[in-house]
Amino acid sequence: MRILVAEDEGELNRLIRCTLEDEGYAVDAVLDGQSALDYLQAGEYDAVILDIMMPKLDGLSVLRRYRSGGGRSPVIFLTARDAIDDRVEGLDSGADDYLVKPFSFAELLARVRVLLRNKGEQKSNTLTVADLTLDLSSHRVTRGGKEIELSSKEFAILEYMMLNEGTILSRESFRNHVWSWDYEGESNVVDVYIRFLRKKIDDGFEKKLIQTVRGSGYMIKG
């Protein structure tokens, strides 16, 4: 899942980005509101973490312009302002959640998981396809009761596929949701990771869950 972080405090920005990346998310991070709006208008994000008080353009203005242009990604506002009127204004501007500084990173991660569940119409932290299960909070993956060890990137790809069970996902779609904009690796990286996942998810099982759709991409189907 790909997340945009817009926070003008450099150290907090770095800590949020590192925390999210440690959880397997692809992260783009910016330090001002205008850059945040530019990124939102140029790309697609599964979630946005947006500070309110930023230089060049404040978070409220960023979100209003993004929503008025049709942007639908879920947004968590970060702010040091705890007044009820500020919270109401943020939510009325189109935010989905509101977190007041200082906050715990565990709570931030939990709120991100809620946004992603709601976006994918999931009501549980556990995703299931046939006998394959993925726990979003513990990062535990099992198939047929057998635990499967995945790298953070493998986990992110599998999560994206399971959230879109039965949907054909193009290679470009994988790159947009699982890798950040600054990725400069091999062009066949999606195919490489799908091969890794097949060995771990499907090898040894009669029913193959990961399917190739020739000329289109990949999907997972129970």
Automatic annotation (TrEMBL):
Residue ranges of the annotated DNA-binding region, renumbered to this chain: 124-222
Coiled-coil parts of chain: none
Residues with 4-aspartylphosphate modification: 51
GO biological process, one term: regulation of DNA-templated transcription
UniProt domain Response regulatory: residue ranges: 2-116
Key words, A-Z: DNA-binding, Phosphoprotein, Transcription, Transcription regulation, Two-component regulatory system
GO molecular function terms listed in the Swiss-Prot or TrEMBL record: phosphorelay response regulator activity; transcription cis-regulatory region binding
InterPro entries assigned to the protein according to its UniProt record, in alphabetical order: CheY-like_superfamily, OmpR/PhoB-type_DNA-bd, Sig_transdc_resp-reg_receiver, WalR-like, WH-like_DNA-bd_sf
CDD domains in the record: trans_reg_C
A Pfam family annotated for this UniProt entry: Trans_reg_C
Limits of the OmpR/PhoB-type domain: 124-222
Gene Ontology cellular component list: cytosol; protein-DNA complex
Protein name: Response regulator transcription factor
Organism the protein comes from: Candidatus Aphodenecus pullistercoris
